[in-house]
């Protein structure tokens, strides 16, 4: 009977797992494989011809004499992506922690409403969200007009299509991912622990730094990972708010499948990005014994 | 109490395999009779719920078999057994009304709608909730949900009703009420009730017979009085009520009959008929309320000498901790009230009188 | 924490003002976008009067309508397949542990972990390698993959919250496994299923990056169409289309949220 039951469960679970396995796991493995193939002469891939050019290309390029020389273009894009992601994470944390804390001190009904308000933008179209920021940030846009009206002669704000605009947009896009896990750990926090800290003579600042923050650490760490990871893979925001001038990793990857027509290089970049994601997930789960997603 | 309804024959159940294997039930045999209120009593993890779930068909026995009126049940799924269950959580279907809950089992047995509704009314009357048919379970109190769970399980007129700690979620007052109620329902319906609980008082108050279980084994089966007054195992005596445990050697009494020697020439006669396979270092159980205290100079027979170490007043009674000379300490419970025996104080030399039928020699 | 926010003990400096700023930051762009979609002025940012004309312009744009239709076809197909697979999987995953359960769980949420751009190119390469023509079909297949976890999680959560003795009670009352599923499990599960399906639907309807890469030239979904329009420039018509998309998402999410709160 036990065997029959087990096999019934097997058949229930199989469709979803096989589907994801076939259309996601296999493609990911294949992507890693493509990254060590030769690029086709007219785009595409030379199946069966191996080459590490994708990875060599990342750092070196061949000059006219066919010598390998260091090319920092791609490294710059990576560094910019990490920098923007770190900046976004910092903004999101500075805004997100107080907000999560605020929500966690509210009465139950209000909490649910506020958390719902935090999640709504996540479910709306990412193009539309970024487009709304274009309306706000462009010259003659709302922010510009507001500043002019307040007496500042901006002469055109010139903030759209800059890294600042990208950073504002990224923060906006991934902010909910910071608030939700922090809220989840603050909600579970026993308020009597904070009261005990007060009772033992801690003032508010020290109750915050010595009790609340350490206990919310798993949530904060989860929030940071959940913000940084999609940031590193952000495609739409740099495209729209950066005007395509400030490529991030995802745009570089995308361009290999468009104009640049270097699929193995694109696959290699994708594989590196995936590796960064999986390694940070692993580090998190080793430290906190759960996946960051489970904190939401 | 003649026909055997349920017969468990060396039924065992293990969960998991390899190093994680848990032995939940280790080959128990018991007969449950028609029209009796049978209770399986024991601490959590003793196997009582496992045995109940095996009878209900929710788990399959690893070995042994269970017979219903002589027919083996082993391969029948729960929905083919004329046995119903009152679950610990009640498990009332939250999306159905009370009436729909009660008619659920009848509908599954293809009873006509009209008949099922009539039966539901009958059941609602039986549990005294006639007005509540159109409510949904979340609108009922815990005690009412409990009654509906009973009505639902009784509606298909099962041969046996299984009850899995159904009173554990209720507060004390309601629990006492439901104990009376359960007993009434059992008597009125004439259905065999198999009840699982860890509450010894509940078991004593309701049951015709009790099986005391520990570590996947049934230690003793008997009526409440028998279980309390004649426990066979140290665990039984300890789990049900309070008990003193003393160790001594079985000897021939000076005046014939049997006696037990606790050393230091403290010898007490007793009447129980014991097999003589073991005579040294046997454990005996004596209930504190069966003991009596007299002054050290009293000439009453069958007494042990000792010194009062502590006196605790409990209102209805007083307990004395008496240190028997060179032996263990015993607790003596004496009722307070008019004509109460003389008061003793800490440090008094006293005699503890042991009636010869108060001693139970245990098998372990 | 269960605290009384009006108690001064729980007031930390800067918390409330930051939270207020947070919500303003979160909703300002949305409010501005919707407001500007009713602006009469062609230059979009100077308010000159209220009009619904841009919506009429947008709704009579055949290309836009075709793209919207494509999006609907994709979202409905992906939702139906994903919800069925997710419901079955959730039922299999509840009730007791089994060997390899962690691996299976990880597989079911894998699409949430992998960055969208990586999913997009990996899937593109896969379709090219096995020689399937890019189009609506490939978009549907790719969307179904990431819709599965969105449908799976709420259904699983509901099953986990369900008293396991309910199904046993149905069995005990003479319902066989199918009857127990139909009469007890399914009626109690439907809010989770519906909520999961709605989330899948909206996540598919909104997806841009994956559709953009695996759709090929012929299959334009609504987000791809909007992307093209935005690249050309900011116009009142884009405002109107964007506002409609926002509204659809917000309505769907709200309804899904409300359904998920249904408790018996």
Structural write-up:
The complex is a heterotrimer of chains A (296), B (364) and C (264). With 296 residues, chain A is mainly α. Chain A is 70% helix and 5% strand. Chain A has a two-stranded antiparallel sheet. In chain A, strands 3-4 form a two-stranded antiparallel sheet. Chain A is globular. In chain B, helix 2 crosses helix 3 and helix 2 runs parallel beside helix 4. Chain B contains eight helices and 20 strands. The two termini of chain B are 31 Å apart. The longest helix of chain B is centred in the middle third of the chain and has 18 residues. Chain C is 74% helix and 0% strand. Chain C is globular. Classes of the chains: A mainly alpha (296), B alpha+beta (364), C mainly alpha (264). At the A-C interface, helix 1, helix 3, helix 4, helix 5 and helix 7 of A face helix 1, helix 3, helix 4, helix 5 and helix 6 of C.
Describe the protein's topology.
The complex is a heterotrimer of chains A (296), B (364) and C (264).
Chain A: H1 2-34, E1 37-39, E2 45-50, H2 53-59, E3 60-62, E4 68-70, H3 73-104, H4 108-119, H5 126-137, H6 142-149, H7 163-188, H8 191-199, H9 204-215, H10 217-232, H11 236-241, H12 249-256, H13 263-288
Chain B: E1 4-15, E2 22-33, E3 37-41, H1 48-56, E4 63-68, E5 71-72, E6 83-86, H2 98-108, H3 113-126, H4 142-154, E7 160-164, H5 172-189, E8 192-197, H6 200-206, E9 209-214, E10 217-222, H7 224-229, H8 234-239, E11 244-252, E12 258-261, E13 267-270, E14 282-286, E15 292-295, E16 303-313, E17 317-324, E18 329-335, E19 349-353, E20 360-361
Parallel strand pairs in B: 3-8, 3-9, 6-7, 7-8
Antiparallel strand pairs in B: 1-2, 1-4, 4-5, 9-10, 11-12, 11-14, 12-13, 14-20, 15-19, 16-17, 16-19, 17-18
Helix pairs in contact in B: 2-3, 2-4, 3-4
Chain C: H1 15-36, H2 53-59, H3 62-93, H4 101-113, H5 116-130, H6 136-160, H7 164-172, H8 177-206, H9 209-214, H10 222-232, H11 236-260
